[in-house]
Structure formats: C-alpha cells, structure tokens
Amino acid sequence: MRILLTTLLIVCAISASAQEPPSIKYALVIHGGAGKAPSTPEGIAARERILKQALDKGHALLKSGKPSLDVVEAVILILEDSEHFNAGKGAVLNAVGKHELDASIMDGRNRSAGAVGGVRTVKHPISLARLVMTDTRHVLLATDGAEKFADRYPQIERVPNEYFSTNRQRNNLERAQEREQKDSKPTDSSQMGTVGCVALDTQGNLAAGTSTGGLTNKQYGRIGDSPIVCAGTFADNETCGVSCTGVGEDYIRNAVAYDVSARMQYKGDSLEKAVHDILNHPRHQVRGGIIAIDRRGNITMQFNTAGMSRAALDSTGKFEIHVKD
After folding, report:
1. Taking a C-beta distance cutoff of 8 angstroms, is the pair 215, 224 a contact?
2. Under 8 Å CB-to-CB from 52, ≥6 apart: which residues?
3. 112-119/140-142 β-pairing
4. What is the pLDDT of residues 24-74, one digit of tens each?
5. Are 166 and 157 spatial neighbours (Cβ–Cβ below 8 Å)?
6. What contacts 24+ positions apart, CB below 8 Å, involve 264-271?
7. Of 18, 221, 262, 288, whose CB neighbour count within 10 A is largest?
8. What are 209-250's pLDDT values in tens digits?
9. Is residue 7, in this structure, part of any structural domain at all?
10. Phi and psi of 200, rounded to 5°?
11. Number of independent structural domains in the chain
C-alpha cells in the first residue's frame, strides 16, 4: 500500500511538472510608437524590417548573456538610426521647424537612471542618457547643459540639426500648422513614433529605455514624458520594466510608468491588469501605449490608440512583430 501511494505521488509530481510552462530565462519587448499605422505597404514593410532587425540584435545579446542595460541601448540605437520612427533620424519638427530630442534609460537593479531633454545635435540621445546615469550624480540634463555635457565624450557622435529631418516629418508639420490655423488651437498629432525597449536578462535584471522627438508642432522648449523617469520610463527588479509612448503630458500628469510598478507592488495586480487599468481609467486620460516586462518575464504590449508598432520575444520561443494594428 505504501509503495502504491509513493508511486502515485511520483506520477502526480511528474504530471504537474510536465504541465508547468517552461521558465523564461530572458525577455525583450520593443515599441515604435502609438498612433496611426503607416498608410502604405512600403511603410509597413519598412517598420517591420527595422523592428525585426532590432529584435534580432536584442535576442543575440540576451542569448549570449549580455546585461539588460546593454541590450536596451543597442536596440534603441537601431531605432534611432531609422527614419521610420520618431526618434533620432526621422524625429518630428517643433513649431519653429527644429528638432529637440529626449531620451532616458533606467537600471532595475537599483533604480539608477539617466536622461536628456531637448538635445539638438546628439545623434544617439539614448547613449548620452546612459552617460548621465553612469558619469554624473544627476538624472536629467537638458538643452544647452546636455549639449555641453556631450562635448566631453568623443564617442558621442554629433550631427547638424538638419540631419534628423525627413520629407515625411516636414509634411506632417505643415499639415499640423494648417490645422492649427483653421482651428485656432493646437492639436496633438495622431502620428506618434516614440521608440522604447524593455529587457530582462539571464541574471534576472530589468532595464528600460525610451527615446523620442516629441510631438509634431510642439512648442519650442517642450519636454514630454520620455526623459522623465516614472512618467515615460521605469525599471525595478522587484516588479517590472516599463516604456511608454503617446501624449507625454498625460503620462507626466499620471506618473504612468511608475504607476504600473506601484499597482503591482501595493495592490498585487498582475502586469497585464495594471497596464490595462491605467490605459482605461474612467477619469484620468492616458492616450497612447505601454510596453512592459515583469520580473518573471511576462510581457505586455497594450494601447488605446489606432495602433502601436511593437515586437517581443522571450527564451521560450515567443517572437512576434505587429505594425498594422
């Protein structure tokens, strides 16, 4: 009888183990901005191609054991180099026809963070943001101060402001200013291509980063949520890593990136529920999207706009890219 009972317990244990999903050793999620999807097959294909390139790069780094901070920076560098997103090359134009770029990065191990706002000649704002984190006692440097800080580092590539311009964004500015003249009040662009990345590495460390050109026709000097830790970017190994995209003012007012973590830590919400409830709050409007990974490797990619370019993978074989919806 005792032998039979022992056998049954072993069989049950093996059966339960077989039903458990494989543990996630690493995970990666990327967004290319909330808003309308590209209107042409060529535009859709271009975004899919760049997202796959970024995903493949991140995958190779994570699989080889690289830390999540390195992965986040490397992925965002690829997106900043593409004219198909609103970050780096291809950034939107402000109301005076210039580019002002923002970025931030955060380390989930100890909540270290670095950010830059309103930079004008830095080819890769995400790399300068990381140097703010590692080489200063500050979190955010902006405009002329950030530009002078960049002067210290030969490895930070500089370009003329015109480098970031594209015909697509010039046309978007013209249309936005025409609408503003007719309506006599500013309107938020439905084309939002901010980029972001969250990674969980094989050591269990989370990191998150976000980079943007802001909103089309934004007022000169405007800074959105992307370089503001707790608004557009957040990472804590105890809970999750988060990157946001959308109307930055909504994310600043509601401390959205941190709120995801807080709901998990203080309410016991799952990652999926925390993000869903924020984007569907009955009183506090948050227009855009959120990507995030929790400490167990669960991924969410949610939005309440017409679309959000996004991609994700993990060590169990998950690999997906979405642009059209």
Report:
1. yes
2. 311, 321
3. parallel
4. 999 999 999 998 877 789 999 999 999 999 999 999 999 999 999 999 999
5. no
6. 264/239, 264/240, 264/294, 265/238, 265/239, 270/294, 270/298, 271/240, 271/298, 271/300
7. 288
8. 999 999 999 999 999 999 999 999 999 999 999 999 999 999
9. no
10. -115, 120
11. 1
Counted residue by residue, the chain has a size of 325
**Number of continuous H segments (helices) and E segments (strands) in the chain:** 9, 12
Rounded CA gap, 316 and 67, in Å? 19
Decide if 250 contacts 286 (C-beta within 8 A): yes
Task: Judge whether 10 lies within some domain.
Answer: no
Q: Which residue has the tokens 């709120």?
A: 259
Identify whether 261 is part of a domain: yes
Q: Give the domain range for residue 183.
A: 22-322
Specify the CATH number for the domain of residue 70: 3.60.20.30
3-state SS assignment for residue 86: coil
Q: In what order do the strands lie in the sheet with 319-322?
A: 140-142, 112-119, 101-107, 206-212, 195-200, 27-34, 308-314, 319-322
- The answer to whether 7 is a known catalytic residue is no
Name the one residue in this structure whose structure tokens are 């992965």: 71
**277 within a domain of the structure (yes/no):** yes
As a whole number of angstroms, the distance between CA 242 and CA 105 comes to: 10
CA distance 297 to 13: 24
Q: Which strands make up the sheet holding 288-294, listed edge to edge?
A: 233-235, 240-246, 288-294, 299-303
Q: Each residue of 38-66: b (16+ CB within 10 Å) or e?
A: beeeeebebbbebbeebbebbbebbeeeb
Interhelix angle 143-150/125-135, nearest 10 degrees: 80
* Helical H segments across 20-87, by residue range: 41-63, 68-80
End-to-end CA gap in the chain:
59
Query: pTM of this prediction?
Result: 0.91
